[in-house]
Amino acid sequence: MEKVRWKRKGSLVAALLLMFFIGVSSEKIPVVMDNGLVQVTLSNPEGEVIGIKYNEIDNVLETQNEEDNRGLIATDFKVIVQDENQVEVSFTRTWNISLRGSLAPLNVDKRYIMRRGVSGFYFYAIMERKEGWPDVDMDQIRTVFKLQQNKFHFMAISNDRQRIMPMPEDRATGQPLAYPEAVLLTDPINPDLRGEVDDKYQYSSEDKDIRVHGWISSDPPVGFWMITPSDEFRSGGPNKQDLTAHVGPVVLSMFTSTHYAGKEINTEFRNGEPWKKVFGPALVYLNSVSSEEKPLNLWEDAKRQMMVEVRKWPYNFPESVDFPKRNQRGGVFGQLRVHDRYMSNRLMWADSAYVGLAAPGGVGSWERDSKGYQFWTKANKRGYFSIKNVRQGDYNLYAWVPGIVGDYKYSANITVRAGSNINLGVLVYEPPRKGPTLWEIGIPDRSAAEFFVPDPYPTLANQLYTNHPEKFRQYGLWERYVDLYRNDDLEYTVGDSYHAKDWFFAHVTRDVGNRTYKPTTWRIIFELKHLNNNGHYTLQLALASATDSDLHVRFNNPNADPPHFATGTIGKDNAIARHGIHGSKMNFRTLIHEPPRNGLTLWKYRNYIRDWFFAHVTRRLLFHR
Asked: What are residue 198's phi and psi, to 5 degrees?
């Protein structure tokens, strides 16, 4: 056993230990890191976290988890650094051709760091593929911690999304609903939860908002938190949604996933493509309060620690050469403005625009990127932006502006070097349109939150979302369409109807019984007072989500065959069933050659048998000359 001690100011003495000792099985010699605040036990050489001792709890992790219920297993262990301030250890697995068909063709390096005075431990992973290696698909890359279910009962993922959670047994005894993740709690251990729906997808968040989340034990009062100070290694941009925590109790750190996006964001490699990426570091943070204090003080402390970690990013202590320090990075800044002569004769500020650097590609390609790094910021009200701490490399600059249709891409590639601070000056985005707006329904904000979201069935509610701004996370809202439109489908009159109460948030199929679903036709009624019989008109249709949908658009004649426009089969994001108000954005523009006189119809072209959740979410309809 190796042992290092140091003295801190005052009389407190703490110890940082790296220990090797015989554990439960004589065939396995665990590795233990201990800084006097937290003790972490790692399996050797697999590199799995099998024990976390903190405060009065010998192991905050669930000890009954199956041994084979693990992830990427390492085969070699190495101490990277051990001194009076830090221990960093590495668990690696190297792939070779003899492993083809049995293990994913990846080299994996799992790193754990324990630092003096930090109540927790950092972790990160380096994944690599060499050129010529076999094809592979990775739908999800994540880290999962399952906590002791007899202690951790209260979950917090944001200031307004906190609650006492059901037990795993409650799901086992409950009534399964339309898909396995959703369960009606019929006989929960806590009777206050009877009649609620539990579904892990109800606790998803956008990546930009996943900074700290976790669980609280009341006896003893201890918090377990996942803190992610940066999402540069995540996929799909700032608005990509991912899981956070759920019944188990489970805490997740999602690196990549196809959730809310579908296979188009799958991390796939073909034709021997090489690749290397660092995921993390993130911090597992543990805290405690006295029994006289409020347990929610743990949440407030976790938020403070999260801000400490954000200010320290990028960390200067990881030892891997693949994680660049602050002085090895660069930055990009400038101002984005909008030129839309049909809205204003002057350049407009790109107020609160999301501006980011991602791998070179087409307009909006960042939403489908899962292999590279992304760096995003939010511009101020005048469109000024500054993107800091960017890894060296070649990027495109992308942006989108809330309230402005379309996506922006800077015309030139941007090469970031260590220490560079690139001033792009004033950039001007011109939205894609050729005439004035005649009418529009909705707001171009990558979400359907502005449309009418119904109340859930009282017998299928999650009380967390009662009178909550994210009411769309309730289960079964898609089925409310038939209740509201029993005999006839939705009809919207431009000028009289209001999108917040008259436009249902999801264009779903109609349940006609026997697990059979038929198309629905929505009609938009409008009148053009100054019709130009020789002019052309354009319909811009923006969808915030779609799953195996085929949308047909017809003007004037609702029975026109063929339709004026059809999307073809689109979407695999399944956002509606996962309680997301958006998934993968899709924009469509169609030119109307005949004068639009008396209306427009949107028709779901499919009969869906046994697939109740196939639908799309309309984000915005814009009609202009």
From this structure: -115, 130
